[in-house]
Amino acid sequence: MNAEETIRQAGLRRSLVKPPDDGTKERLKDFASKKVTTAFVGALACFEEAFGHLWGHGYCWEDLTEDEREWFEIWRECRAAILDKGNDQAKALLEVVERHDVRRIFGRKVSGG
Fold first, then answer.
1. Cα angle at 31 between 26 and 37, to 5 degrees?
2. How far, in Å, CA of 91 to CA of 99, rounded?
3. What is the pTM of this model?
4. 105: β partners
5. Which of 16, 24, 54, 105 could bond to 71 as cystine, CB 3.0-4.6 Å?
6. Whose CA is closest to 100, among 15, 9, 14, 32?
7. Residue 74 burial (10 A CB sphere; 0-12, 13-18, 19+)
8. Residue range 70-90: average pLDDT?
């Protein structure tokens, strides 16, 4: 490697790596949390769109049939369980990020500076 490549690589590393107190970890946690939440909430929305007719999705409770009300209760319990599990996974991901050095790139620790 010649001197120019060494300088270019060093500059690249400095531009990719920030000191740990610059909010990098918090930005990563915020980004990861939003992505996980979007994934499971988006899945719920797709399910509602495809099967919402079973429980009268979009209609007032008073206008629902007995069958639709029963399906709505099943859906409400299922939806709550999915949200609980998704939120648990989002929290678990944030804990993993918190335990790691975000200055690691491709499995190797990169010196900040």
1. 125
2. 13
3. 0.67
4. 108
5. 54
6. 32
7. exposed
8. 96
CA distance 69 to 61: 8
Percent of the chain with pLDDT over 70: 70
Write the single-letter amino acid at 98.
Answer: E
Contacts for 16 with CB less than 8 Å, ≥ 6 apart = 105, 110
Q: Mind giving me the DSSP string for 70-83?
A: HHHHHHHHHHHHHH
Closest by CA to 79, choosing from 110, 54, 99, 108, is: 54
Q: Is the pLDDT of residue 64 over 80?
A: yes
Query: Taking the CA of residue 65 as centre, how many other CA atoms within 13 Å lie in the half-sphere pointing to its CB?
Result: 7
Find the angle CA(23)-CA(28)-CA(31) to the nearest 5 degrees. Answer: 125
CA dist 80 and 72 (Å) reads 12
H/E run at residue 13: helix 3-16
